[in-house]
Amino acid sequence: MSTNDNLFALDIGTRNVVGMVYQTVSGGIKIRSFSKKDHQVRCMFDGQIHDIPMAGDEITEKICKELLVDFNTAEKIKLSLNKSKNEIRYEDVLAANKTIKKGELMELIKEPINKITNSLADAIIEVNGSAPSAVFCIGGGSQLSTFDDRLAECLNLEKDRVTIKGEENWDKIKNLRKGLKGPQGVTPLGIALSSCKQKDFGYFYVTVNDKLVRLFGKEQVKVADALLAAGSKMKKLITTSGKGVKISLNGEESYFPGNTGEPATILVNGKNAGLETVVKNNDDIYIEEAKQGKARRLKAKELLYESQKSEYFYLNGDKINFPYEIKVNGNKVLPEKYIGDGSEVEIRAVI
Hints:
Nucleotidyltransferase, domain 5; Ubiquitin-like (UB roll); five-stranded mixed sheet
């Protein structure tokens, strides 16, 4: 890779996408340009650390409920806490123009902030075994006012031991732009610096039905692992027969199974494969889900054919079947009649 090549780092976050064009220079990077776009609709839910059943959305939803605003408006209100203005203006769902002071808003969201920071602290202690010496927070959500102080309190740390990681110590970055400064820029800048050092941290990439999927581990990563990472539903790879028809035929229970389905197709780089096939970097995986069998549609004439095998006579040497009468649940029916599940069927030769 030439140092003159333009490279691209992309961070797809919960609230926005940051794209950055850069070049490698003397073990560092030089930023050529970047763009930040907010999502009109959330592309995914907020990330969670370890086993934390809540995240930034809980704060947003609290604002939605208390201020009677939609989700996007609540997000803007939440992000306004990081600005210098003391009052925040917004429009509620009734199209009424409203104003709320920062202090009032902070009091309103105090409870969810406490819940989130308590859960974060518990998870950090569980993973680390004890409170760490320091905590570095990255990402836009960490900019929320009082978040770092509250987390420090939960971990029994000095306030300066929990810090929001921004552009500090990016000494290997030239032409750092204003929009990339702060915790929201850490991820794309980290991607760029890792690429110039040719570090992949054990990750590699495959495609699953043209969807790029990142996997971890260099050995024995299988198709099944890739499908799980891609969010595929494994049960859709299993074929099942359609629903059968169970009836009573001349007083005896009979069952007619449904139609069998078609198994799933799994290809790796165009060749037949299975869930246990080992995959490697840049493999192309194609999956066609199993086709489920159709329900059995049973006609009366199918039952008639079975009965005619044993009820016949000969006339002048010719085999002749007796005429039959078919009753379903006590009613006479024609041979083309479909028989429903649980029906009582009676077939008798008319002699």
